[in-house]
Design brief:
The protein is of the alpha/beta class and about 300 residues long. Helices cover about 35% and strands about 15% of the residues. The chain folds into three domains: about 50-140 and about 185-240, Rossmann fold (3-Layer(aba) Sandwich), CATH 3.40.50.1820; about 145-180, no CATH class; about 245-309, no CATH class. A hairpin with a 2-residue loop joins strand 1 (about 50-60) and strand 2. The longest helix has 22 residues, at about 10-30.
């Protein structure tokens, strides 16, 4: 790409692009997310109530016997007068007569449903597999923002300042509408999701549980371990994304590459593929420079430094 067509990216614009990309992905999912209109608070219910009935859950290995129902929780636990909300809950039943610790699944996103897990059959021979809907996504209250989706549709340049202002205005409009409808937006975060998981564990009568989390779901698992460590038997986190932000620091990345290189050097197969992993990876990895500098795009691969590419 020559200089006349190279786009200049400030750090703030790169951040904006990353955040908008996440937003677009979440909005795209919401259009196809399971309809939660059937999830509602049963008449006369109180916080902690759990209603289950027999059902079947589709997996990659066919339908499995399960229990499907509703868990009732307060919207705002710190307020004794808080209104109640309902969350869907599914327990895929273990085939074993003597099941091991149940597995609670925590999907990523953020913004994805927690009610879809087609590989449950890989675990359900010896474990119950439990899916608890995420508040604000799967339950009786959904924080949909069509205002934001509309703003993005009408502003095609995702890096344009006008687009940033448009979707910021749309978020404010959405927040105002939801608040006016009586929704306490401060009660729809990860901590509240964690407390919902613990409420489900208690209602289902489990002692210790296993957590299986992925991507943004690992944040939920980590915070669950901070708040309810005594409730956890094991926690498996895939593609860990700890609390914080979605960008990595170059120095941390360099350190991680160095550690992998040291492990590679001890393995004959890996060592034969490349004798220069860390500097070669670093040379070929995209670099986000300081604010006001240009963005250089290079292939982020770590092939052997002696290969033709």
């Amino acid at each position: 790409m020559d200089g006349s067509t190279t786009r200049m990216f400030t750090l703030s614009r790169v951040l904006a692009l990353a955040l908008i990309a996440l937003l677009v992905a979440g909005l795209a999912y919401l259009r196809s997310a399971p309809d939660s209109s059937t999830v509602s608070v049963p008449e006369g219910a109180k916080a902690g109530d759990l209603v289950l009935e027999r059902c079947e859950y589709p997996t990659e290995n066919g339908n499995y016997a399960a229990e499907c129902g509703t868990l009732v929780v307060p919207e705002k636990r710190a307020d004794p007068q808080s209104r109640l909300i309902a969350l869907p809950i599914t327990r895929i039943l273990a085939k074993s007569d003597h099941p091991r610790e149940p597995i609670f699944v925590l999907q990523g996103g953020p913004g994805l449903s927690n009610m879809t897990f087609e590989i449950a059959s890989r675990y359900a021979d010896e474990h119950d597999v439990v899916l608890v809907g995420y508040r604000g996504i799967d339950g009786s209250v959904r924080l949909d923002c069509p205002e934001v989706e509309s703003a993005l549709k009408h502003n095609t340049d995702l890096l344009d300042e006008e687009t940033s202002e448009a979707y910021a205005d749309a978020f404010r409009s959405c927040a105002g509408r939801l608040t006016a409808a009586g929704i306490d937006l401060g009660s729809y975060g990860i901590v509240q999701q964690v407390d919902d998981m613990e409420a489900a564990r208690t209602a289902l009568g489990y002692d210790k549980i296993d957590l299986l989390s992925e991507s943004a779901g690992t944040r939920t698992a980590m915070i669950y371990s901070w708040r309810y460590s005594d409730s956890i038997h094991r926690s498996v986190m895939i593609a860990v994304n700890p609390p914080g932000h979605f960008l990595s620091y170059p120095s941390t990345t360099d350190e991680q590459i160095g550690r992998y290189a040291a492990l590679c050097a001890k393995d004959d197969t890996c060592r034969r593929r490349t004798d220069d992993s860390p500097p070669h990876c670093i040379r070929r990895t995209p670099r986000f420079l300081t604010a006001g500098s240009s963005f250089r795009s290079r292939r982020a691969t770590c092939a052997s430094p002696h290969s033709s590419d």
